[in-house]
């Protein structure tokens, strides 16, 4: 595969629907301290049956933003929020594993442990206390659900990611694509294919090594 030049400069914004704009503003602006930086009041956009709405944005640092749509007159039932688990838009039946439901989430990063614990303090003093604090392989994160049921993470790096780990990530993805193209993919098959790719590519790495 030919490598494409990389031209993007990060996230402009991610956007979600909300049925409770007041609680959403309380959570992001008043509890977390993310300032409101933009809003769009839209009447009559789209087809005739499109409701009036407000689209509002919070600054999450680095010129990135999280945004919400509030559609006037739209209820959770109209929005499709049926089921026992999930958020205001995508809900799942009670039989769906929690790990699957929680895989849909937004993660915002901070510089250090002090900042992470400050956000933990703010959340724990609010109506949305931290539900989990976990150290992963290279990061430490706190988690909660926002007023809309969106799973929300704040994370900090515990150490830098090395170039070798970037190489490993690409090997893993190449192996994954090969494995899922065949019947009955499994974690064991992924590791076996990754080992094969390491053997196949080792000679090329030796040629470019300093």
Describe the structure.
Residues 10-157 form the VOC domain. It comes from Pseudonocardia zijingensis. It holds the Pfam family Glyoxalase. This protein has 210 residues and is an alpha+beta fold. The chain is 34% helix and 26% strand. The protein has six helices and ten strands; from the N terminus they run E-H-E-E-E-H-E-E-H-E-H-E-E-E-H-H. The protein has helices spanning 21-31, 76-79, 98-102, 113-124, 163-180, 187-208; strands at 13-17, 36-42, 53-59, 65-71, 85-86, 91-92, 105-110, 132-135, 139-145, 151-157. The strands form three sheets. Strands 1-4-3-2 form a four-stranded mixed β-sheet, covered by helices on one side. The chain has a four-stranded mixed β-sheet with strand order 7-10-9-8, covered by helices on one side. A two-stranded antiparallel ribbon has the order 5-6. A hairpin with a 4-residue loop joins strand 5 (85-86) and strand 6. Helix 5 crosses helix 6 (187-208). The relative contact order is 0.11. The mean pLDDT is 86.
């Amino acid at each position: 595969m030919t490598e494409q030049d990389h031209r993007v400069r990060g996230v402009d914004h991610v956007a979600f629907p909300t049925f409770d704009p007041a609680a959403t503003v309380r959570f992001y602006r008043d509890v977390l301290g993310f300032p409101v930086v933009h809003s769009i009041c839209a009447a009559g956009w789209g087809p005739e049956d499109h409701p009036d709405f407000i689209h509002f944005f919070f600054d999450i640092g680095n010129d990135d933003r999280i945004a919400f749509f509030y559609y006037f007159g739209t209820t959770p039932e109209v929005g499709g929020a049926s089921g026992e688990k999930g958020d205001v838009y995508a809900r799942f039946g009670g039989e769906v594993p929690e790990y699957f439901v929680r895989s849909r989430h937004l993660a915002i990063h901070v510089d250090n442990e002090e900042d992470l614990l400050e956000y933990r303090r703010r959340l724990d003093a609010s109506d949305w206390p931290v539900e989990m604090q976990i150290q992963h392989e290279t990061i430490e994160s706190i988690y909660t659900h926002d007023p809309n049921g969106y799973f929300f993470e704040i994370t900090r790096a515990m150490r830098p990611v090395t170039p070798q780990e970037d190489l490993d990530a690409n090997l893993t993805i190449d192996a994954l694509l090969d494995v899922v193209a065949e019947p009955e993919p499994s974690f064991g098959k992924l590791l076996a294919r990754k080992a094969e790719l390491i053997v196949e590519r080792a000679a090329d790495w030796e040629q470019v090594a300093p």
